[in-house]
Amino acid sequence: MSEKRGKMSLSQKQSVRSGSHVSSSVSVKSDWSKDILPPNFSEKKTSSTKRVQYETLDLDAQTHRSYKNFKDNLLQIFQDLERKILTFLKNELQKFKKILQKEDLDYLKDFNKNRCRNKEAALDLTLYFLREMKQDEAADTLEDELFFIHQLKCSLKKKYQCVFEGIAKQGDSTLLKNIYTDLYITQGCSEQVNTEHEVRQIEVASRRHESQEIQVECTNVFEASEEDKQIRTVLTKGVAGIGKSVSVQKFVLDWAEGKENQDISFIFPLPFREMNLKEQEKLSLMDLITQFFPETKGLNITRRNQFKVLFILDGLDEFRLPLNFDGNDVWSDESSPASLDVLLTNLIKGNLLPSALIWITSRPAAASKIPPDCIDRLTEIRGFNDAQKEEYFRKRFTDENQAKEIIDHVKQSKSLFIMCHIPVFCWISATVLQNILEEKRNNVVKNNQADDASKTLQESNTEDTPKTLTQMYTHFLRFQIQQSRRKYDGEHTPDVSWDKDAIFSLGKLAFDQLERNNVIFYDTDLEACGIDVYKASVYSGMCTQIFKEETGIVLGTMYCFVHLSIQEFIAALYAHLFLDINKKCVFDQDSTEQKNKSENMIDLLKTAVDKALESDNGHLDLFLRFLLGLSLQSNQRLLQGLLTQNNRNDQSRKEIVQYIKQKFEANLSPERSINLFYCLNELNDQTLVKDIQTHLSKGSLSSADLSPAQWSALVFVLLTSEEELEEFELQKFKKSDECLIRLSAVIKTSKRALLNDCGLTDKSCPALATVLGSDTNLKELNMNNNNLQDSGVELLCTGLKNINCKLEILSLKNNCITEGGCHVLAAALNSNPSNLTELDLSENKLGNPGMKIILTLFENVQCRLEKLKLNCISITDEGCAALASAFNSNLRELDLSRNQIGDSGVTEISSLLRNSQTLQILRLSDCSISEEGYKALSSALRSNPSHLIELDLTGNDPGPSGVKQLSDLLQDPNCQLKTLRFLGPAADEGCQYVTGIVGKNPLLLRELNLSEHELGDTGVNQISALLQDKHCTLNTLNLCGCSITEKQCLILTSALKSNPSHLRELNLSWNELLGDSGVKNLSDLLMNTQFKLEKLHLCRCSITEKQCLILTSALKSNPSHLRELKLSGNQIKNTGVNHLCDVLKDSRCKLERLSLYGCGITDVSSLTQSLTNTKALQFLKQLDLSDNKIGDSKQKLIDVLRVSNCYLRWS
User: Fold this and answer.
1) CATH value at residue 1150
2) What does pTM read for this prediction?
3) How many DSSP H helices and E strands does the chain contain?
4) pLDDT tens for each residue of 431-476
5) Strand 233-237's sheet: what is its strand order?
């Protein structure tokens, strides 16, 4: 191609360039030289005959001199000419070089703006010689930049620099740069988004938290990360009105103005809507480009590889061709004609211009037309976030006060503010509220109501100020009709002059096409609704910013409503008009069964509810909301003159609210259920949140059934409620990071967030940090028992240190936080210390170093921390010493439980207690404190008794006197201690139970007698809980005749095993149901070396010979403490006595009293033998063998005992 171009004449090149005026040759005899040639003497005139001779002679002389001078100066003239030409060419060549080097883009503008023949001649010469030098690439690039690229940029800049909000080419335009607000674009897409109504998608997306997705800047949509492959094709989806086309417009404009993406050579925006008009033609790709962009005629974008070309295919959802990716032929020739479907599928697949970039935009439902393997990046436009909504209004209104007033009003209604996520809805809201303000101020001026002039929209207390979607769209329709009347008919009355027939026809079009899921209409569609296509512009003029007519690039016309939501509103209005005129439900207009039946409002509303619930994709959801909203009298008053006012509307409202609530009883899909909540909101029913909570409690919106997108919809329902959410509990939903991120918007509006025990990790911390750093109601955050670790804490701290964070209570118990996490946490809290009053870091691995870091908070004079919980963080007395020296005067409650601080640590705490004027609650449970520590605490509280009101010492070992020393404090009239806790909840309950029986505090007793009380399982459990606590220091426990069973014996002995060191006497006599397991458990207790029992009474316990063996075996293993054993009334017989003899023979045995009364003994020979020549006889003082039928063997026993001090009882 370059060679061919090099042979083209300049005149041929002239025809290629749009608007070029380059001469066909470069000659010195051109216009350039006419100012330096000698004068034309033949044109001089003579005056008279007489003067001719003199003048001729004079003239000849002058001519001769002039010509001589010309000949003499000719060399100098051409030297000067050469210098000027060279200077000019040198300057132009320098500019051309900079153009090729992308250094002087201003010259592009100057060249085309101040185009003259000399500049064009310089370019022609440059191009000619470059090609003579075989530098075709440089020549082509220079020509492309100066003609094709620049001309395309100029054309696109002119086309895209202005924005026409609402209707293109109608009304006043605004420069895009003055109104454009960045949109939130994310990589990836939402789950199941294609199946839902688009406004529902927006409501979902508006509360989707930004931190969970990868944000993509519009200008960088083709920029790949280092690990990603090169991005060729991008699909951007978003619902109607979200800003897809505006994003394209901004991208193209920035390129055309030389601001962004200058590495792209050509951008070709090809709207699918306009390409529909070429669906029947066969044309090449180059022909398609030329028809859309005539300034590129003659361009061959394939002639060199340096071109970077971008095709923007906008509005896939509006394309009427199928895009048959599988069935179409492969097409790779850019100059050969094919059908439009074939061209586009091959362009997207990369068969045509494989190096070209492709950007496709689409509404979600149509995005699936593109095979996933053809897409390198999928993005989604989410619209405006909260900050961008405000930015839009501030740009829209130059009057700052007016902008603020409108922002404040929109924020008053949560539902309106969330809908402003859609840029088109921002425009609708701005239009309506601006008109209301202007109308109000005009009325104020007219009526001289100066006092009302400064009232805001909220202070006006007017019911006309829109607070719901229906009210907003009704006002919008009124104002647009009024505006068109003023413009075309000169009407300036406050009342609206409705053209009922026109609105009825327009409504029929909206309704019919809504049922068919169509948003683009053509001539046949209008004709079917009784609209004359030749008068379609009248409708567009009447509803200037509601219905629009567009003409394609060559021929053909299409129609649409400005936004899908407006089509749905007009359709709902049509349903009311149809009922008003025909007394029929619009859904039954073709039904022969309902032909003669008259229907009323409630029939229409119920039918609409049923129809909407039958829809699989919810295409009637917003229509239903508008339909229900328009049934309210307050909204119908705005349409007075269009709709007949009906006094039964209030009754209809009550009936339809009840009807909707009945529908919740059915097995509805979550989408349909949630939309019914929206409907109740449009009907001003304030039970919305209660309905949701009831529905949740029934399980119909349980976490197992809802996808993340559906949870986001639930968020919107909660947020649009007028009731404030006091508490958010994640466990009611789904315990996961994903669910927390999805519902973070609800946390933002709640006062307390209970996120404990949900398996959360650092993944959810950025979302929480964003909540904490925003304008939120959150005061309490409970994240106990999760797995945040130091990395999660670090992320969370970005929100904690934000000045907007007003958190008062922070609980991070059991989150695997170490010393490292303490550093970032302390730094964050020190930077924003004035709000936090309670901090819980219990059950983390802080150690003494971590604790010391946390204590640096007390060094900040602004620290307001009142409660500090450091339960089980592995600190020792070293940490206690640091605490004592850094103690803060604001601290009211301190919890150091389950740390091995010991008596030395308590001594440090005691020094703190002696000086503290603020500490009221101190918890030191399970801190390995012994009697010495109790004495230190008692001493400290005696010296400073007037502040501490609660002391918890559960799980410590007070020794014999610890409890008494502290309990005695309660008798001091100066002591403010109201709660002195030694026992855990179960032990405390047992203590109260025993106190109720004996009338005394068992912790202060050494002997507890509960004999003859039927304790039962409950009583035994309570007593056992008390017995196992170390604060219980009983020496004697009498449970004689308490009907203790095997099971209860197990519970009692288990309790005594855990606290064995105090009990010396145990009486279980007259409990005949101990059984084998009971005796076995008791024997296990006796074998415990820490159990130093001295007296054991087991009379009348139905102990058998076998059980006696078990019991004596245990006594033999630990015989040195027992002094008294009573087994009377048990039939242990001779065998049992033989087993006891094994204990007596043990040299460690020091038994003093043995009672075997009525045990069925007949022979004591073995007993006599065991006492003969053993130490046992030295200790035994009393032996009771009464009521046994002993034979001759007793005499030998008497003889043995006679020489000892033992008293033998026989009867």
Assistant:
1) 3.80.10.10
2) 0.51
3) 48, 31
4) 888 888 887 777 766 666 545 545 555 454 455 678 888 999 998 8
5) 214-215, 185-187, 377-381, 233-237, 357-362, 309-314, 266-271
